[in-house]
Amino acid sequence: MTVGLAAVDTESASDAFVSSIRKSFVMRPVVQISLDLTNIDEALETAAMALRAGVDWLEAGTPLILAEGLHGVRELRKSFPDVPIVADLKTMDGGYLEAEMMAQAGATHVVVMARAHEETIRCVVQAGRDHGVKVMGDNLACPDMVAGAKWLEELGCDFVIHHIGYDERRGIVAKGGRQPSPLDQLREVVQAVSVPVQAVGGLTLEQAVATPGYGAPLVVLGAPLTIDADEFRTADGDLEHSLRMICQKVHSYGDIPVGK
Questions:
Q1: What is the reported pTM?
Q2: What per-residue confidence (pLDDT) applies to 16?
């Protein structure tokens, strides 16, 4: 009996030590562009321009994957062999197979939804370990967004996406309500987890660029910041110049402490 208690105490101490290590690192801010396009040629052109401007990560957005399938991810990997690529398929089921297929297509990061079954999240995390890709857990539509973020970390996700959905935002506004923003609870989410956080959903350009100041080092740019949200095409104007200024601003934050 004494041995058993000692073992439990040792394990708890070990867990606490590991936890303290996980919470004691910093991360250089990352600028990620979401290629929410439906044409691979335009996606490749936009990606090349974004990388010239200083963007760090590319995202094969959900519209691109729906339109082009994993062919879109493969083409991005072929064209940009050394750039991190997020495949935003928003996995809800078939977790291991979907993550495996995305990894084999060239993705370095995959996305699983917090509202998926626990086993699906565990399967995606396992596939990530087996195939060398990082897992981003998305808390979209969680009744308790902070609890959803903590749940994703507990199940092994490497990053948390704090996400207010497109339809949710528009629907609430259409009924006369105030549009919710990821910034409403961003500080709470950042403080609740010890993995890097990304805020997504209806942010203005200024708000997106400000998220590292909340402790969220992953800045994503997409609709409607750099993509026409209604037509899913590259926004008009001198996008490359704008992106260059955005990247300079985000990177100027320097290292961001992650976790408590």
A1: 0.88
A2: 47
The candidate with the shortest Cα–Cα distance to 198, out of 125, 139, 134, 117, is 139
Instruction: Give the tens place of pLDDT for each residue, 231-256.
Output: 656 666 788 888 999 999 999 999 99
CA–CA dist 165, 163 (Å, integer): 6
Tokens representing 140 are 């979209």
Q: How far is residue 210 CA from its own chain's centroid?
A: 16
Domains of the chain: 26-255 (3.20.20.70)
Question: Dihedrals φ, ψ of 255, to 5°?
Answer: -65, 135
In order, the DSSP letters of 200-228 are ESS--HHHHHHGGGGT--EEEE-TTTTEE
d(CA 68, CA 138): 22
Virtual torsion, Cα 187, 256, 155, 99, nearest 10 deg: 120
Of residues 147, 104, 149, 148, the one with CA closest to residue 128:
104
Residue 204 vs residues 43, 125, 141, 146, 217: alpha-carbon distances, Å: 22, 32, 20, 22, 17
CA pair distance 26, 203, nearest whole angstrom: 24
Are 62 and 35 in contact by the 8 Å Cβ rule? The answer is no
Contact between residue 186 and residue 210 where contact means Cβ atoms under 8 Å apart: no
Q: Which two tokens stand for residue 121?
A: 């999240």
Residue pLDDT, tens place only, 13-31: 444 444 444 556 999 999 9
Give phi and psi for 75, each to the nearest 5: -65, -40
